[in-house]
Amino acid sequence: MTTPPSTSHGTFQGTDVLRWPVVGLLLRWRHFRTALQLVLLAVAVVIVVHGFIGPEIASANLATVLTWVHYRGLLVVALLAAGNLFCTGCPIIRVRDWARRLHVPTRHWPKRLGGKWIAIVLFAAVLFTYELFDLWSLPRGTAYLVIAYFVVAMGVDLLFTGASFCKHVCPIGQFNFLTSTVSPLEVQVRSADTCRSCHTADCVSGHRPGGRSTPIVQRGCELGLFLPAKVGNLDCTFCLDCVQACPHDNVALGTRAPGVELADANRRSAIGRLADRPDLVVLVLLFVFGAVMNAFGMITPVYRVEQWLTTMTGGAPEAVVLGILFVAVIVIAPIVVVGGAAVATRIVSADARSPWRITARYVYALVPLGVCLWTAHYAFHLLTGALTVVPVTQSAVIDLMGWPMFGEPLWRWAGMRPGKVFPIQLGFAIFGAVGSIGVAHLISLHDHPKRAVRATMPWAIAIAIITVAAIWVLFQPMEMRGVGFGG
Amino acid sequence: MTVTVRDAAGQPVDAATLEIQALMAHPGMAPVIEPAQGQGHGVYAAHLQFTMAGDWDVLVTGRLPDGRRVRQRAAHLSVHAAD
Ligand code: SF4
Ligand code: SF4
Ligand SMILES: [Cu+2]
Description:
heterodimer; A: mainly alpha; 2 domains; two-stranded antiparallel sheet; 2% strand; globular; B: mainly beta; Immunoglobulin-like; 54% strand; binds iron/sulfur cluster; binds copper (II) ion
């Protein structure tokens, strides 16, 4: 029943982390995912509880501190250092699996709801609400956001089979999938030959030790990724179900060259060709330009621009003003910069494809830059604020117990000085730009072997423009406002 | 800035050990913390140097003479970049 593998990689050459002494044993442990999920579930409970009963002060509440400083900071660090570990440990899926013991969904995700379109709308909506309501400053609001994630995920995944929420709805999931394309690790087959002689494809359909008509004891990939035809990390939640399901122990968590998959034109299992996925193209643009917008939201000039727009529109409400700003940064800017690069490539390399087809091929080259811009921003908060969790926890314990069980709060603990973090941010931005130009050139080498440099040039310029804009943002004085303060 | 501390009966409280803490509206930013000096008549003063433009929550924290803990929000401040 196996189709011949169309994978771009034959037999796996890298290092298999699953075979490492201690780490390997841990990762292959049947309950590894559950253990990680339970840890993060405990954190989610702390966030919700303190969000509701703790002080309504963002810097002194675990909901805001853990969500906006630690969770998103550590998430990108894990993605860059290893892989999509925050999907592995996602507590929502733990709760969903418990709920599915009571109710088993039977419907498949409807085709007409499309691939990622709902997730794209939600991603944009989260970015917009974050800015409009200054979510970072709202412990209760943050707690509600966490609850909303759980509720929506339960609704989707109790109605539809597999990992429908992860694949089609979850904005964090899409962020993780895109970022994981530059992760150093990938779930991949060890030997292509073993898969060729495999007749059960348990990695995708689930392991049935007693044969075809017997019950599944270990589910296969909930995202429909058939391992021998899987290319790269897109749509992989690093759940390692396939590792447990494969009867031939043929799945590795292997090292690979980060980002190269972005240039891969091959058909991918359950994804297809990247260039044939308009939803993924739009998602990438939102991801990259959203990174600039998100950082722009915390500097002084954004308030000037908003004031100016308010005056220009004759006093329009903040939602409208912010809406205009969003359209400018995440719709018009990409059309101009990316569309311009596509038209230029078409001309200089005599590419017969339409500008849209060229965009759909090259846009993935922007992902490393997008990743590094998100990282520059989130690493800033993590590095400058990592230690604030200590006094906030101590203070929460005093509120709860009535005495300083963990000592008097060390309020002065914060982290690195913002000025010291700036060179690191600059480094990330440049590193991302270089990576993006590299991927663009890989695409050119494949599509225009004779005119690769010329074909890459417009994309290098587009990448430089986005990078310069982002560095300008990083250079600006910061200004962080909260709700109800006239900002 | 100055704060005034009164007891339940409205009498000024001196001899408390207090600090003024300013915390940013964004979590994870370094706070500004200064000891508040008693000026008599329940008035305490501290000099705060804000490190960043934006919104700050100003809290009074410390202990009253009878040993009770205080941790009370005193103000929201909107600090604008000097131009
Ligand atoms: S079950 Fe294992 S051997 Fe079979 S196709 Fe999947 S990864 Fe290959
Ligand atoms: S089962 Fe699917 S999502 Fe999970 S690790 Fe394997 S390929 Fe990735
Ligand atoms: Cu920020």
